[in-house]
Specification:
Family: Belongs to the SCO1/2 family.
Strand order of the largest sheet: 1-10-9-4-5-6-2-3
CATH architecture: 3-Layer(aba) Sandwich
Number of helices: 5
Keywords: Copper
Largest sheet: 8 strands, mixed
InterPro entries: SCO1/SenC, Thioredoxin-like_sf, Thioredoxin_domain
Shape: globular
Distance between the termini: 37 Å
Structural class: alpha+beta
Radius of gyration: 16 Å
CATH superfamily: Glutaredoxin
Protein name: SCO family protein
Order of helices and strands: HEEEEHEHEHEEEEH
Number of strands: 10
CATH class: Alpha Beta
Strand content: 15-25%
CATH topology: Glutaredoxin
Helix content: 25-40%
C-alpha cells in the first residue's frame, strides 16, 4: 500500500537523520561518493536476525556475507509498492550483468499471518527464483522491523485488511555492513550506480 507522501517523506527524513545522530562508526569504511540513496553506514540499525526462509531453511543476515544484500519489508498482497520494488530488483540484477550473481534479494514479510512459506516462495519465484522470502512470528517480525526502523501497520478494509508500510530498500556490502537505503523513487539506473560503488569496495 502506498504511504501518504507526508509520511513517506518523514520516514526518509528519519532514516537520513539517524545516519547522523549515531555519530562516527568504529568501522574504517571508505565513504560513499554522493549516492542517490541514503548513506546508512553509521546509522546503527539493521542488526543481525534469525528468520525462517521460503527455501525451507533458517537464515541469519550474516549467512549472506560475500554478496551485496538487498532487503525489503513488504507483503505478498501489496497492490503496488512491493511489486514495484521487486521488479526494480530484477532490473538491477539484470543491469549488473555478471555482477548480478553477487546480489542477494531478501523479502521480509510484515504479514506473517497470511504470508505462508509456500505463498512467499511462489510469489518471489514470479520475480526471480533466487529471491528469498523471510518470515517469523508476530514478535520476531516486530523486533526485526524495529531493528531496521521500519514502519508497518494493519489497516482494516471491510472484512479483511491491508498493510501500510515504509518503502526503503536496505543494502549491505559484501562484508555484511549496512551501507545504503534505496529510496522507492530511485530508478534502476540510480540504484545500480549506488550498488556498483559497493561492488568496487572489496
Amino acid at each position: 500500500m502506498t504511504l501518504p507522501m507526508n509520511r513517506r517523506h518523514f520516514l526518509s527524513w528519519a532514516l537520513a537523520a539517524s545516519a547522523v545522530s549515531y555519530g562516527c562508526s568504529s568501522r574504517d569504511l571508505e565513504a560513499l561518493d554522493e549516492p542517490y540513496g541514503v548513506d546508512l553506514t553509521d546509522a546503527g540499525i539493521g542488526a543481525d536476525f534469525v528468520l525462517n526462509g521460503s527455501d525451507g531453511k533458517p537464515h541469519r543476515l550474516s549467512d549472506f556475507k560475500g554478496k551485496v544484500v538487498l532487503i525489503f519489508f513488504g507483503f505478498t498482497q501489496c497492490p503496488d509498492v512491493c511489486p514495484t520494488a521487486l521488479f526494480r530488483a530484477v532490473e538491477i540484477k539484470k543491469m549488473l550483468g555478471e555482477d548480478g550473481d553477487r546480489l542477494q534479494v531478501l523479502f521480509i514479510t510484515i504479514d506473517p499471518e497470511r504470508d505462508t512459506p509456500e505463498l512467499l516462495r511462489a510469489y518471489l519465484a514470479a520475480f526471480d527464483p533466487g529471491f528469498i522470502g523471510l518470515y517469523g512470528d508476530r514478535d520476531q517480525t516486530a523486533r526485526t522491523a524495529r531493528d531496521f526502523k521500519v514502519f508497518y501497520a494493519k489497516v482494516p478494509t471491510g472484512s479483511s485488511y491491508t498493510m501500510d508500510h515504509s518503502t526503503i530498500t536496505y543494502v549491505y556490502d559484501e562484508a555484511g555492513h549496512l551501507r545504503l537505503g534505496l529510496r522507492h523513487a530511485q530508478t534502476p539506473e540510480e540504484c545500480v550506480a549506488d550498488i556498483r560503488q559497493l561492488l568496487q569496495r572489496r
